[in-house]
Design brief:
The protein is mainly α. Helices cover 95% and strands 0% of the residues. The chain starts with a helix and ends with a helix.
Amino acid sequence: MADWNKEVADATERAEAEVRRVIRYLNDEVVPEVRQQSSSALRSAAEQLTKLAEKMDDRK
C-alpha cells in the first residue's frame, strides 16, 4: 500500500510540475503573440473601416 501511495504522490507531483510548465509557456509565449496579432488585426480593421467611411463620404 505504501508503494501505491508513493506512486500516486509522485504522479501528482509530476502532473503539478507539468501544469506549471504549461501555464508558464502560455504566459510567456502564447499570450504575447495573441496580443500582438490582435492589435495587428484591430489596426487592419480600422484601416478598412476608414476606407469604407471615405467611400461612403464620396457618395454624398
